[in-house]
Amino acid sequence: MAADRTSLTAYWWLAAVLIAAGLIWLGEGLRGEPRVLAHALRLPVLVAVLVAATAALAVLGVRAVRVRHLPEVGDGELVLPSPSLPACRARPPVLIVGGLEVGAGASTITFNLAVLLATLGELRKDDRPHRPRPVCLLRAGALATALGLDPHPLEDRLIGGRSGLAQGLLPLAVRHPSGCELLCLSERVSAPEHVWALVSTLRRQYDAVVIDAGVAGLQLANTAAEIADLLLLVGLASPASVDGAALLADQMWRIGLEQRAIVVVNRLRTDEPTPPDLTAGFQWSTALPDERDVAAYDLRAIPWVLDLRLPAARQLVRAGRRLVPWLLSKRLPDVA
Amino acid sequence: MWPDPADLMTWLGLGLLLLLLPPKRGPRRIAARLAETSWGERHYAFGPPIRQGRLADALSERWLQLLQREWPRVVELGLPVYVLACLAEQRGARHRRALDAAWARSPAGLLLDHLTRVGSEAELQARLEERGYPPPPAKLAITPPREYLLPPMSWLRDWHRDRQEQPPPPATQPPPAARPRLEIRTLGEIRLLADGEDLAPALNRKPVLGFIWYYLLAVHARRPGDRLARADLGDELYPTYRPPEQRKKVRQRISDLLDDLPALLRECVRVEEDHLRLDLSGCAFDVRAVLDLADQVRREGALRAAALLDQAHDALARASTEFLPPWDEIERKGTEGRGVAGGVVSEVRRQVDAAHVTLLLAIADWYLAQRQPQRAVSYLEDGLRLRPDRPEIAHRLAMAYEQIGQLGRANRIREEFGLGQAG
User: pTM of the entire structure?
Assistant: First the structure.
């Protein structure tokens, strides 16, 4: 992570130079020796200063001609390195996203990851490209409500225990304009046996399954070990997330899930470095920068990953390319 | 003595040069930052100016504003690096504008535009199609299971009850399954089985008659109903004789065939005026079973019924062996290896090899259709080993490996056979 230093550096340098020049001048004067060096440097320094000052003013003049607006970036810009993540080879992939604390952003990342696969993914059949059809299971909450999803039909279907799960379940999925299909999970159907049944049915019908598991706990880790190809744990740079990560890190190693577990540090800011303990127990991690516009898109239930002008969207696309390289199209707009 | 004020100016001047020229950042970070800025990842290479936002319209005022806002950056970076940073920032801005333009035309940009403007789905699809992008998939629709209309169970129970009240019909033996009168096995072995007895040793003890019978068998295997001309048989057995003697000798051999062979074998021989052939109706012939099954698969394009899968496995086991393995010895004893009958046997062997590959691919396709690519791989491997000149087998094998997640092998196969990369 590359943070910007403040412009106070310039003031310190200026002060230091003034003090140093003053001290040298006083020192030479009080010594009483002939000031040969100072005399010798007088003219060259004068010329050099004039040239440098003129050049600086000229550069600023040229800049004034060409620039009418200085882009606003606040206190600084966060440039994140390209993520190093494991690739999921299973087809279709099953990705589970859990939060290390409430409000970490698991739901929005689940939804946007699914839309990313639907919009920018590419599969080939009979040598013709076509878009994949992922399914996204969102936890009931603000985002699901904004998308117009209702958890009750799925709850009735699963808890009712009727047979013919595929026939009854698939019509409940709501199609998003990106092609991704959405289902809403309530707390009542988040038990492992329900998730098992859902995933077994969904992976036969869809090209990718992305599940919002809510706040991640030990039960999620055990479920993920059985059914998930990758587990993404979303946290913030906060003590609550660090505590959640510490608990789950031990469990990951204990059940052999460490190769498939990834920590996603969400809403990272320039003035708030990642706590090292958040990612220390995991082999894989990545980060997403904090953006005002992301929250605005979420309120309107519009997937922010589509706005590739946002650094957060570009970083999620890079992460997606690492996670499912065979699925994300080579014809993506260049996100570097 | 008092310090000379002119010297102060000299030292201050040196200090100013120190402020203006060298950068105050690590050299390694400078290159990385400039690169990130050139690529548009950063707006500013080394942090923003004191105040950002719009500048004045008048040039002189703008210049003063820049002087006021940018001087810390000039000091921090030094003039040369500051110039490089400005150039990188401009280049980055151009790159960002180009990326934004490309994004606006991409599927992500078009979809975002659709979602924010709330246009119709048809408009979105038209715009995607215009730019050559595949449309988003439609809502998943599954085919509902077929409904079968059955009579109610009560009818069946009533019928059973009625039957119980009627006197039972006399017990009848089920007709025995029709057994072939002769079972001919020529793949990997030669056995001619009739009621458990193998007639092949008896035939093999008569080299010339055995040759004639096996030759007729090969002709029938190549194409059922085909006939062998007496003259061709004569050329095989007595190539140096003149035609009248040849015909006489052939008549004698045919007479011997009809007298000396075991009954079941001679009953298969049909003698016509100028031709001979075998009539194997009521007999089971392993080669024809394999070739007929392969022909059926080729006509229908695949194994159409689960019952055929077992037959295909049986046929595959047999087709991997050679037709009439001791043919060379038979021909040597019968004609001293002088004739062309071997060509018929070779042709049948080629047909069996082709059937072998057809059955391998049919079984592989069955498993692929059942979404069991891991079971299909071994059959495709065998098929490719037998026919490395068929790139479509390599392509199917690469796809099967991709489906089971073995991308390394899939890529090696694609490279080896010059196939395009998968999507």
Answer: 0.60
CB contact A36 to B (< 8 Å): no
Cβ contacts of B116 on chain A, cutoff 8 Å = 302
Residues from chain A contacting residue B370 (CB–CB below 8 Å): none
What average pLDDT does range B86-111 have in this prediction?
A: 91
Q: How far is B35 from chain A (nearest CA, A)?
A: 12
Residue B104: CB partners within 8 Å, gap ≥ 6? B110, B113
Cβ of A306 under 8 Å from any chain B Cβ? yes
Q: Would you tell me how many other CB atoms lie within 10 Å of the CB of residue B376? A: 26
Ranges A81-95, A169-183, A187-201, A243-257: which has the least confidence: A187-201
Which candidate, B259, B253, B222, B257, places its Cα nearest to that of B236?
A: B253
**Separation of alpha carbons B104 and B300, rounded Å:** 49
ipTM of this predicted complex?
0.83
8 Å CB contact between A277 and A246: yes
Check CB contact of A225 with chain B, cutoff 8 Å.
no
Note whether B10 contacts A177, CB cutoff 8 Å. Answer: no
Do the beta carbons of residue B298 and residue B215 sit within 8 Å?
no
- Interface A-B, measured as beta-carbon pairs within 8 A, has a size of 259
Chain-chain contact of B72 with A181 (C-beta, under 8 angstroms): no
- Residue B310, min C-alpha distance to chain A (Å): 27
